[in-house]
């Protein structure tokens, strides 16, 4: 028997055999989240996107909590304690449905819950994390401001002492989950530097008007946070976070999920293009039989599965405690940028049908325009890598 006869068949869905790197538990997590998304998101998401709403978000959050997808990689307090690779696989499957669903999970788990888990007191953890892990309480994360996105050190939101209390004034912008959140992790300037605060959203002076008229992430709740003399007790401050290292470490954890998630949007767009190319006929034959179409499909497949391999590598490094923030920047910069390229090429394969919501491609492409910018723009990640490569700081 020849060596070639022992080889497994080529799998267009996994051309590099990346599944061979996954443990049975990893595959079980991936398949569970994929089934949930196929049942609860895919049949409805085009309508949600067209209407610019995410109805039933609280019910969806509870279902995601029941799956163990909220605060998935955190330990204790009702969190699943999954591996970084398993969390990444979940992000990939969620974003293959829609970036807005993955954003709901990322902000809940990798930003709001992660901040409380890493920097909070035991009392704060006990009060919030079990309910957030179950999806009973939705969280949001207030860092970006109307005039300060990539430069959070210049934030204007201020927390002042008033007796034993803190009083917060300021505004945050582009906050996922804001208007449906029961708790907000808000970062503010104090006389002693930047600190984080756990803010119940029913406090007087807190409001979260929803941002409308978006052309991206339409199946997602996005809000402004307004803090007008919000009074908090002394123990509302996160005791272990001082300066920008706190919020930036949260962002790094969330960016890791994006490295995987972007490949989910790319995969869905590639699969739509591949299926279309096999069935769409022009000039008497399926367009998938033409050389130029095959070149597009091959290039998309190469970038898609290179990105998945990169995400997997970073996940293993995170599980080993060896993942650096610069490496997360590497992954986010590459994978989101390549995912957008895959979506745009897939759109050309579908021709005019590519702009229709009957297919997922344009929805994913427009969503990724937001993903490209949030949690670090292309330029910021280029500068992070540039500094790491040269040892020279070009930020200022």
Describe the structure.
The protein is an alpha+beta fold. The chain folds into 3 domains: 16-133, Acyl-CoA dehydrogenase/oxidase, N-terminal domain (Butyryl-Coa Dehydrogenase, subunit A, domain 1), CATH 1.10.540.10; 139-236, Butyryl-CoA Dehydrogenase, subunit A, domain 2, CATH 2.40.110; 245-390, Butyryl-CoA Dehydrogenase, subunit A, domain 3 (Up-down Bundle), CATH 1.20.140. It is 50% helix and 14% strand. It is built from 11 helices and 9 strands. The protein has helices spanning 24-40, 45-51, 57-67, 84-97, 99-119, 122-133, 245-279, 291-319, 325-350, 361-373, 378-390, and strands at 139-142, 158-162, 165-176, 183-190, 193-200, 206-207, 222-232, 281-282, 285-286. The strands form 3 sheets. Strands 2-3-7-6 form a 4-stranded antiparallel sheet, covered by helices on one side. The chain has a 3-stranded mixed sheet with strand order 1-4-5, covered by helices on one side. It has a two-stranded antiparallel sheet with strand order 8-9. Helix 1 packs parallel to helix 4 (84-97), helix 4 (84-97) crosses helix 7 and helix 7 packs antiparallel against helix 10 (361-373). The longest helix is centred in the middle third of the chain and has 35 residues, at 245-279. The radius of gyration is 22 Å and the shape is globular. The mean pLDDT is 96.
